[in-house]
Specification:
Two copies of one chain form a homodimer. Chain A is an alpha/beta fold and 369 residues long. Helix content of chain A is 41%, strand content 16%. Chain A is built from twelve helices and ten strands. In chain A, strands 3-2-1-4-5 form a five-stranded mixed β-sheet. A five-stranded mixed β-sheet of chain A has the order 8-7-6-9-10, sandwiched between helices.
Chain lengths: 369, 369
């Protein structure tokens, strides 16, 4: 998910230009390759609430034997494509724009596209999925395969290199746990946004820290180092001013950007900050536990091995108080053989690998039908 | 506060028309009474996030000997005047409109106005107060006394008939505790809005109930009767649809309107709903405790007597599971002689009485200076 960090951009190596990849194209729909300017491609899109990333990969021979590094043809970044945030028209326009840019950068064109997978936040229900599928069908010719997934699914695929198995935990501005069993069942936990209690998310952590400042100020809570740290970070002179500050702009990412201040206070020994982070760790681990148990990823006796892909700014702090590490320790209490994975590629690449895998599977099905 | 309920309107008796009140006007600025069409008046305004109420009272002789019932000249209602919600221009226009309507209904006019007090949500800092004072100074001629208070202060005055002493607890869509000591010190607790953890508010209660539904659905929490009650109330068929529902419209009052469903579930024995309400009671009582202790309203040994004015839809449920009663029981554990008051008049009348009292005090000061 493009909005999983705290304003940090991803530094993914991109082989821009016109890499010529001689794929071993075993697909029967090869006639769809309408011109010889470049290889057939798949597109992966990661549509978040702050930005949308599109990557372009050449069609490769075997999804189980991927080259390392992946031969990325191009990467493009645009604005928000979450229709809950910006409305349908703006979301759709953003998608068209970022796809066009990625194709141009890759030296490819619309007719070379074989499949597209969009991982997007705000897909919480089949009707959401259908709506966005329709946008993609409007953009592409009918022979192009289009897929829409919750952005957490693309994040999972970024850790498993396209395989839909295991559980992903995303904790950035928001948080969600999402999993797939080997027989294709899926389950999710959390991911409802701020109103629906995602307390392990960056927003959740920071909102609790702001609340602790207010409580310390009005006499309901103990004094905390969070007061001076947060006021300094926001350039405010008194806790009373926090109320106006929260009303000024209702963007959740702006609140979540305070997570590093909370981590600093916990590292400096502030008990309230420490408790907030400890609760967040528990919440995040419990959302993974709920998914793993529903899908029985851990086997009957909880000792089975399965991937847990860890994604998002909250889990990537790399600080002395390391939320991600603490979450892994907590998860391992329940499932000692859970295999934590920190993805080496971004979710948009996960989405592209999903597009590739889905396409290969459909081609297999067609071959045998 | 006009937005303290769950969409119920107030049934305050209004003597509309042109009551002739023969006041014993002891004020030296009597020359300000520029025409003889009616009595000099004071205006009280209650500006909330859902509506703004203006009432018109005649100047009376003695703030310590008020007639019962009060001789209200008129009452008018208009839209939102919280500039955090609608912006400054719209808020200011709403105020002008509702004042004009109240004066017209009372058969009075702008030149009869001696003092105006506006109790308004969103006044959290002296700069907020100054901004709104300036709007009133723009609207009225310079000899009219204008006062701006947090809406909780008007609510307190509605219970104490204009006297600023004691603590008010407001729990509607939002929640706040606000108090004054007899020597004029003031203090507040909570009132920061949803992001800053007002968990005893209607919004807080309902958001926790929605979260409980999501947690029961995804496996993080126990099953609860809240699921079927809330889905039915919202016309939704599955908990997954709640996420889209919360994103559709970010108004907090819409969330808070679910409080009666939570109360029903608690009454029917649902443990999760019961726990949510019990936590809300504790939060509300703790906000009163924080104010009372900071102002030492309870004396040195916590046995002093002081008024606790209880206002807002959350405290007025009149149900078997009575949040207001439970809050009183909790407060009395700390302060056995706290005197709960349920106001008989609305906060706009409280604001008018404040305007009257402030005016009389200024007149006293001028007389002796």
């Amino acid at each position: 998910m493009a909005d999983r960090g705290f304003g940090h951009s991803h530094s993914i190596p991109v082989n821009s230009g016109t890499n010529e990849v001689e794929g071993n194209f075993s697909l029967e729909e090869d006639e769809a390759r309408q011109n010889g300017d470049g290889p057939n491609v798949v597109l992966g899109l990661d549509g978040g609430t702050t930005s949308t990333v599109c990557v372009c990969l050449p069609l490769m021979a075997d999804p189980n034997d991927l080259p390392d590094p992946l031969p990325l043809l191009a990467r493009a970044v645009s604005g928000c494509s979450n229709y809950n945030s910006v409305g349908e028209n703006a979301a759709k326009e953003t998608l068209e724009q970022v796809i066009t840019e990625a194709l141009t950068k890759s030296g490819s064109n619309w007719s070379a596209v074989r499949a597209v997978c969009l991982g997007v936040s705000g897909v919480n229900h089949p009707t959401d999925q259908e709506k966005i599928l329709k946008w993609l069908r409007d953009i592409f010719p009918s022979h192009v395969k289009v897929y829409v997934q919750n952005d957490a699914v693309a994040a999972l695929a970024s850790g498993t290199m396209g395989k839909l198995h295991g559980c992903v935990l995303v904790a950035g501005t928001g948080s969600i746990a999402y999993g797939f069993s080997e027989d294709g069942k899926e389950a999710r936990a959390a991911g409802g946004g701020p109103i629906l209690g995602d307390w392990g998310s960056g927003y959740g952590i920071a909102a609790q820290a702001l609340t602790a400042v207010i409580r310390a100020n009005d006499g309901r809570g103990s004094q905390t180092m969070l007061t001076s740290r947060i006021l300094k970070a926001l350039g405010l002179s008194s806790p009373d001013e926090l109320i106006g500050w929260t009303y000024e702009d209702r963007s959740w990412a702006r609140i979540a950007a305070l997570v590093p201040e909370v981590v600093s206070c916990a590292e400096a020994g502030d008990q309230i900050a420490h408790n907030i982070l400890t609760e967040a760790v528990k919440e995040l681990a419990l959302s993974v536990k709920a998914v793993v148990e529903r899908l029985r990823l851990c086997g009957e006796d909880s000792t089975g091995s399965f991937p847990v892909v860890m994604v998002g700014g909250v889990l990537e702090t790399k600080r002395a108080w390391d939320i991600g590490n603490e979450v892994v320790i907590y998860i391992k209490k329940f499932f000692p053989n859970a295999q934590p994975i920190r993805p080496k590629v971004e979710p948009a690449v996960g989405a592209a690998l999903l597009a590739f895998n889905f396409l290969m599977k459909e081609s297999e099905v067609n071959k045998h039908s």
